[in-house]
Structure formats: C-alpha cells, structure tokens
Amino acid sequence: MDLNFLQTFEQFATMSQLLLYRNTFDPPTSGPVTQINIASALDYVVQNNTLSPSQYTQPRELFIVENQLRGSTTNSHIGMAGLGTRFVVMGNDMGTAQQHTVRLWAMHKGYIAHNALRGGSADGIRHALKVHSGGLGDFNDNYGISGSTWASRQIVIGNNRLGDATDNNSWTGVSGPQNNGPDSREGLEDVVLESNVFHRGPNTNTEFIIMGRRMTSRGNTRADGGTPNINQFNNSYQLLPSDWVGPFYYQ
Fold it and tell me: What's the total number of domains in the chain?
C-alpha cells in the first residue's frame, strides 16, 4: 500500500489473499508490460514446470483497491490484467494504455465496482474494461481439476464510471468471448452490469457488449443523457454453443 510503482506489479503464476491498496503507477517507460499483472502466465507455468498440476491452486481472494494507473499509448502495455476467484476490483482510477485498460482473462465470483475506468488506446478498438474466460468448463480451486478452461461466472460490474470524453475507443467495454475466431470458445454466465455511468468519447458507438447466458443489464446510464448502446454484438460470436447464448435480461 501507498507505494509509487515506476513500472509494474507482477505475479505470473498464482497467489492468494492479496490486497494491493492505494498505490500509484506511473506510465511505463519500456514495454511490453502490464502495470498490474495477476497470474496471466499461470497456464504456461503449470505446463512447463515439474510440479503436478494438482499442486497449483487458482489465484484467489484478490483485492485491487483504490489504485491509480496512468498509462501511455507509446509502449506496448495493458493497464491491468489477471484472473482468479473471489476477486474484487474496487475504487480504482485507471486509464490510457496501448491496448486495453483492464483485461480479465477469467473471473469467478468477481466484483468490479466504484472504479473510474477510462479508455484511450493506440488503435481506438480496445476497451476500458474487457472480461472474457478460459472456456466452457467448471471452476475448481485446484488447477489439476479445472485447469485453465473454466468459464467466468457470478460477476457484478456495478456503479463504475466507464469511458471518458477524451477516449478514442469505439467500444467502451465487453463481457464476452474475446474474439469471433476459433480461439474464442469462451463462456460467461450470471453476469450483472448495473448502475454504471458511461462517458462517450468522439468515436464511441457502443457502450458495452454482453455475450453469454443469464446476462443482465439494468440501471445503466450515459453521462450526456443519451441511451447506452448495450447489445449482444448481433450474436456474431458463432462458436458458442446455443445453450451459452442467452437468456439476456435488460431492465
């Protein structure tokens, strides 16, 4: 807590009971780098180590609270990336990256709330917040049981400020498969997007994309008074099985 990071905080494999609290991260001066990196290389570490996969536990009880990240579009980097269970991202102010501001590879029992997540990227097609998953499997704390192919489940994204008037991104956020290609057979379920305020930049056309099953959007607004464009991306993620597409609840 209360540290000034000149580059990055990283734990590539796994961790538990982490509180990263009230720190400031300066724009990175070299790349590629992720300013906050939690277990992004866990699968690689397990597959290339001598320990049995059953000796690894999934990252768990993670709290990223009230940190400030100021990035840059010059160096190849992401603001924050990670995966885990019982995972809280709350009260942070993050913005500007060459790629995505916040990218969560997979999340189980997650709470993303009361953050200011701005965009701004090198190419304008990235996100302020991107949540996807490892596949369609069930989650287990033991990596030897669930591996890296578990679906993201039971996530609340609420009461955030998403986007900024200076953002160049066209899409503010997504909770769904990362792409429409053969590598993105990724399930999400029981996700609630609620009471967020979206701020449009000059190129914004979509506030949020939700794709999965039992996906709920309610009480979201735009700062300029318009209606947020929250949609299913025209169901273009064709690789998902039909029982992983919907129902969607809009309120």
Answer: 1
